[in-house]
Each structure stands twice: as C-alpha cells, then as structure tokens.
Amino acid sequence: LFAYRDAKEDLTTLTKRKFLARCNPVWSQHGTSGHSFRIGGTTELLLRGVPPHIVKVLGRWSSDAFLRYWR
After folding, report:
1. CA 71 – CA 69 distance, rounded (Å)
2. E-assigned strands of 1-71?
3. Which CA distances in Å does 56 have to 9, 51, 65?
4. Angle at CA of residue 39, ends 18 and 52, nearest 5°
5. Which pLDDT does position 71 carry in this prediction?
6. pTM, whole model, 2 decimals?
C-alpha cells in the first residue's frame, strides 16, 4: 500500500516493521505510541456510526475489549 525510495532510489515497500522502527523513537519522545492510533481509529469509527461488530472485525478483536477505547 505504501512505498518509498531507498538510498539507491529503488521503490521499496513500507512494511509495518520499517514504519514502526522509524516512528517509535519520535513517538516516545512525545510520550505517545502507535497504540494511540488504535484508540483514535476505533473511537473515530464508532463516532461516525460504524456498527461495533464491523469495528471489531476491522480491528481484528476476538472479544469486546475494543469497546473500552470508546471515549
């Protein structure tokens, strides 16, 4: 879905591992983490009226624990 140009100017796939390796140091300096996106995304979907059972599938939850993110 996402790509970037590496040092050789080759188009390279942006993997989850590469993304987090780049972002985690920045987020930690600001007292946050990637988990904030999970909370924010869940809240946004629920506030926009997406049915909870759909949010559950999108977030790959096997329980209703995701409802705790609804702030």
Report:
1. 6
2. 3-5, 11-13
3. 39, 9, 9
4. 120
5. 58
6. 0.59
